[in-house]
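ok so for the tutorial part 2 we go from a plain amino acid sequence to predicted structure tokens. step 1 is just haveing the sequence, like this:
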Amino acid sequence: AVFPTYIVQELIKLLSREGDIVLDPFCGSGTTCVAAKSLNRQFLGIEINPEYVALAKERLANSDLQLELFV
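step 2 — the prediction. this is what the tokens look like for a chain of 71 residues:
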């Protein structure tokens, strides 16, 4: 399922601290990894579909353009 980044960021803030590792075993397009990166968390995303892997890599490379909606 597709989730807005700001929703995932809120969950990550509630359930982890800066520097923690966030695991997404079904990474898809990388929303969770992008959110974790923006919140200074380490992340590990797992995905078997090469198209989604490429998309997630691209999103992570451009993730400094995405900011939190709520601080």
